[in-house]
Amino acid sequence: MEYISPQPAPQPLPTAASAADRRTDKTPLGTLLSVLTSFEVLARYLEVELSRYGASLIRFHIMSTLFRNGGEMTPSEIAGSVFREKNSVTAVINTLERQGVVRREPSPHDRRSVKVVITDKGWNEVNRLNPVAQELSRRALACLERGGVEDLVEIMRQIRNDLMPQITRPAGRGSASRAVAGPG
Fold first, then answer.
1. What is the pTM of this model?
2. For the domain that residue 105 is a member of, what is the CATH number?
3. Residue 23 counted as domain residue
4. pLDDT tens-digit series, residues 105-137
5. Containing domain of residue 95, as a range?
6. pLDDT over threshold 50, residue 173
7. Contact 102/116 with Cβ under 8 angstroms?
């Protein structure tokens, strides 16, 4: 008969508390991974909370972007502002249009282009979700003091401004390059 040594008991997965108790990796890679993880946690938090009000994060982001820009933008402008590929933004815009919260109109400046315009129903949605978003934002940042929030905003702005020129992509053969635009 062959002797089989017992397998060591599986170790439990780290919990949020035990992971937070570990020493923070302050190397550049550790810092970057921490920022990315924080972004993912924040995005998931917002996705879960917004779903309670019948909205997804991308829907809210697009509608908020339209709101901040006077209620009308081209699909390309929206895609650049929310840092998504135009085809995925177009799919969301199609849904928003079917639901009656936006409509497409021909651009008065370029007949090959359209602009996406918030409808009355869309304005009602934005006005309904704005206080919700304000409260979610307050709760998400409640762990920081006012000075910490201001510092965080400035640090994120510096990172964006530093990296934006590095994500410039060629627009096509013989064309000028373009960068995905974003909030400043």
1. 0.74
2. 1.10.10.10
3. no
4. 998 888 888 999 999 999 999 999 999 999 999
5. 28-156
6. no
7. yes
